[in-house]
Amino acid sequence: MVADDLRSLATVAAAVIACMGYARFTARRLRPGLPRLAAFLPVLAVLPFLPLAFRALHPRAISGFFLAWAAEFKLLLLACGQGPLQPTLPLPTFVAIATFPMTLRDPKSSTARPGLGLVESAVMAALLAAIVSLYRYEERMNGYVLLTLYSVHVYLALELVLAAAAAASRALVGLELEPQFDRPYLSASLRDFWGRRWNLSVPALLRQCVFRPVRARLGAPAGVLAAFVVSGLMHEAMFSYITLLPPTGEAAAFFTLHGACAVAEGWWAAHERWSRPPSALATPLTLAFVVVTGFWLFFPPITRPGADKQVIAESEAMVAFLRDAAGLAVDSAWSILSSWS
Fold first, then answer.
1. pLDDT band, very low/low/confident/very high, at 110 (cuts 50, 70, 90)
2. Per-residue confidence (pLDDT) for residue 222, from 0 to 100
3. Does residue 229 sit within a domain?
4. Would 84 be classed as within a structural domain?
5. Which pLDDT tens digit goes with each residue over 141-181?
6. Quick check: 261 and 276 in contact, CB under 8 A?
7. Is 2 domain-assigned?
8. Phi, psi at 187, each rounded to 5°
9. Domain encompassing residue 8
10. Which end of the chain has fewer CB atoms at under 10 Å, N or C?
């Protein structure tokens, strides 16, 4: 499987570069609007199928997020003359911005947040490895304890994957990117969690593609709810990449529920004299709501068909590979030092 997916990675990378090269070429020659959108249709049709080239779940899910969601939305924005993509960008930079779900750092901003450092990344990687090691006892675990581990696993994995993508962008094309998480465990409301702390490239895209157009016609509450509904539909697609099964509607229900609650939060916040819970209470209540509704609606489409077992198996294989590689590196270094002495 590893050899097959390495070949698939090379094929998918070549196809992405070709697609983005074509999109950049046509965008330089066509004005924003229907002609540019029509020219993009072949690329928009091809990108969602590329993740299916992978047999392993992790590269299929990650490339699905990168290509079928982030890249598609950015190309739709480019077709309208908006968004982070510019036809004048060098091709490597254009490809990186188009395919990685990242937000460019504003060099003039004085409030830019630092990304994950080596120490933080190492701590998160160690915590993730510890969680993976606990899965060997999953048969003896309470179901809710296991789902709690899954929740932390998702957060740590996304942090590390997106930080790695940011590091690759910085090394290959010199892009400075905003970190994609801002301590979501400190969120004091759903609006704070989804809009300002969790996977920030997604709300940035939804804000441009969905919220602003709907707000202009129907008002801010409708724009918020529409953004959450679209996020739910895209998560249904992401879950289909994970399970290779048709959508169940549960992810859409999860995000629609959170969207309705976020609208209610905004309505309550608009009344300045109405009481609000202190942060010491608001944060645990917010996290509890996210976790409990996640247990109810978010995880079942993954756990029901057993996709979580494949996630565990692949994670255990990756941890074992890294442990063996680290041991080999230490042995080699020790041998070299011994030969010098």
1. very low
2. 96
3. no
4. yes
5. 998 999 999 999 999 999 998 888 877 777 766 776 777 89
6. no
7. yes
8. -60, 135
9. 1-99
10. C
Q: What is the mean pLDDT of the chain?
A: 89
- Let me know: does 172 contact 92? Beta carbons within 8 Å: yes
Q: Are 175 and 97 in contact (CB under 8 A)?
A: yes
> Is 244 a residue whose pLDDT tops 60?
yes
> Could you tell me the maximum CA-CA distance found in the chain, to the nearest angstrom?
76
Two structure tokens written together for 121: 């990344």
Whether this model's pTM surpasses 0.85 = yes
Provide the CA 98 distance to its chain's centre, in angstroms.
14
Amino acid at 135: Y
pLDDT of the residue at 301: 95
- Number of CB atoms found within 10 A of residue 32's CB: 14
User: Position 47: which residue type?
Assistant: L
**What is the number of other CB atoms lying within 10 angstroms of the CB of residue 20?**
24
Is residue 93 included in any domain, yes or no? yes
Instruction: Return the higher-pLDDT residue of 77 and 179.
Output: 77
SS (H, E, C) the chain: CHHHHHHHHHHHHHHHHHHHHHHHHHHHHCCCCHHHHHHHHHHHHHHHHHHHHCCCHHHHHHHHHHHHHHHHHHHHHHHCCCCCCCCCCCHHHHHHHHHCCCCECCCCCCCCCCCCCHHHHHHHHHHHHHHHHHHHHHHHCCHHHHHHHHHHHHHHHHHHHHHHHHHHHHHHHCCCECCCCCCHHHCCCHHHHHHHHCCCHHHHHHHHHHHHHHHHHHCHHHHHHHHHHHHHHHHHHHHHHHHCCCCCCHHHHHHHHHHHHHHHHHHHHCCCCCCCCCHHHHHHHHHHHHHHHHHHHHCHHHHCCCHHHHHHHHHHHHHHHHHHHHHHHHHHHHHHHHHHC
Residue 318 has pLDDT above 90, yes or no: no
At 144, the amino acid letter reads Y
More confident site: 162 or 10: 10
Residues 236 and 298: beta-carbon distance below 8 Å:
no
Q: Based on the structure, what is the number of domains in the chain?
A: 1
CA distance 206 to 249: 20
Q: What is the CA radius of gyration of the chain?
A: 22
